[in-house]
Each structure stands twice: as structure tokens, then as C-alpha cells.
Sequence to fold (341 residues):
Amino acid sequence: MKVNPGTATGIGSLPGTDPLEAARIVLGELPELTHLPELPARGVGADIIGRTAGLLVDLAVELVPSAYRVTARPGRDHRRAVDLLRTDLDAFDEAWEGVSPRSSVKVQAAGPWTLTSQVELVRGHRVLTDRGALREFAASLAEGLTRHITEVGARTGADIVLQLDEPGLPAVLDGRLPTASGYGNVAAVPAPDAQALLAEVIEQVKGATGASVVVHCCAPRPPVTLFRMAGADAIALDATLIGKAPTTLWDELGETWDAGTTLFLGLVPSLEPATPPTLRALAEPALRLVDRLGFSRDLLAERAVATPCCGMAGASLGWVRRALSLTRDMGKAFTEPPQGW
Fold:
């Protein structure tokens, strides 16, 4: 994935319920690689699973006490997710007016493993436990994402970047998901199988739209190599968590950069810290990363994108503006390091 030096972006979620205000904040602070905001505070259908389920083609879900569940036909919950996304797109259109069409826009959705780990079949079992249902969901998701990317591209005239959020994949790989009964865990999914399904979704979307694909996971030990081998053009992670990671993860990150993959480095806190941070302190994990791996710090300008550590749904609007401003400044600092860095 080629990015302009100094690029910065957000992860996705923001606080509040006003999509126009959110769009204006993001466009104002992150004009180079802006993103379609997500506002989960609006409730059902605005969260990552409900929002993504609203993109599915010929599949529908409803909310039950335990989770989202497959249903025979779209009902109130499914229609609400579709309507909320439509409202977001209309608000983004309004805020977009006057923005250079050379800008890029990032859209976000749950990846196939996170989605199918959190949606139940009619009998209460997770979708990912049924091979046929799993493949049906993956195909439906790929088609829905293709339509979504095509629409956002037509509305904005911009290049579209897709971010697949896979926060649930580590639990899937480790066998840490509880069964429907709660008395055991779902069997771990082998890494090659997880990679193959993710690759199918990525390949279909990229082949149909030409969009670059970022896979995001802010877990302490994201499966970096799996994401890269599945075809991700970029990998987004929380860089503040890797300091205590095992050597194997550091090796994977080095191999990822060597392979030409871009890293989206989460560096700015998603919640306001007690002490106002300096830009140099926030940059420390990124500088330590390139230094430890033996790369020139110029690589941060060439193959890194500054981001907040994760989504910002729990932050105040004041901190959102400050954090996104710091993120933008971080991107610029990658290109032109301040004296003393």
C-alpha cells in the first residue's frame, strides 16, 4: 500500500450521536486519509457487529439477549443498521463538499472471523462453528463490502481504503470463545484455515474494487504474519503494547516491513491521559520499533501511518480533536523529525 509521507488517520469509532459533527471533525483533522466515522453510542446497529451485518447481502440478523442472531428476513434491528449507515453516508457527503477529490477515504467493517464469532445461528451456536454458514457469511460479507466501497467511491470520487477489524481473531485462534452452553470453549481454528478465509474475502474485494485493504487488530499480540500472508496491504496495531511482546512478534513486524507492507501504528491514547502527553513521548514506541529492528528511521515516513491506539468511542469530543491533531502532527514528524529526535 502506497501512502504519501506523513499520512495519518483514525481507527474508526468516535463518541456522540451526531454523524455530521463527527464527519466534520475527521475531515478537518485528517484530510490526507480521512475515514467514515462510526458512532456506536447510538446503540443497536451502530456497533461494529450490527453495522457490518447491515452490509451483508441476502443474510439478515436480529438482536436477542445473548447476541446478534441470524434471522430468516430483515427485521427492525437489521433495517436500523442499514438506515444508520445511510445516515452516516449522507452526513459524510455534506461534510465532504469542497474537499479535494485527491483525498482518500477509509471505511471500516468487522472482518469475517470477528463477525462470525459474534453472530449466532438459530440454535445459538456461533456462525464460525458451522463450516457451511461460515463460508456463506464470508461470501456475503465480501459482496456487501464491494457494494459499500463502490458506493462511497462514487459519492466522493476518492480512492477508497478498506479496514477490516479483527479484534476477535486472537480468541478464535486460541480457542478462548465460550460455547453456547457456557460450559466449554469453541475449538481453536487452525491458523492456515483462518488465513485462507480472510484471504478469500480480501481477494474478492480487492479484485472487484481495486481498494487497498488494512487489517486492524489492537490486541497485545496480533497475528501479523497471518494478516500479511492473507493479502493485507497494511496492518494496523496498537504500537504502545508491543514493548513487552515476545521476540517472535518483533520478528514478524520486521518481516512485514521487509515485505513492503505498511504498518498503521497506534500511538496516541484513545482516552485522555491524566498528564498531557508530548509528541516526542508519544512517538517513542515507533522510534523504538525501527531502532530495535535495525531499520532507518526514514522508514516511518515511507511505510508507516500514524493513528490513535484504537477506537475513540469512549473519549470526550475535546480529546478527540486534540488526539487527532496529535496524530496528524505525528505523521508530519515521521517525515520531518523535530530537532533532538
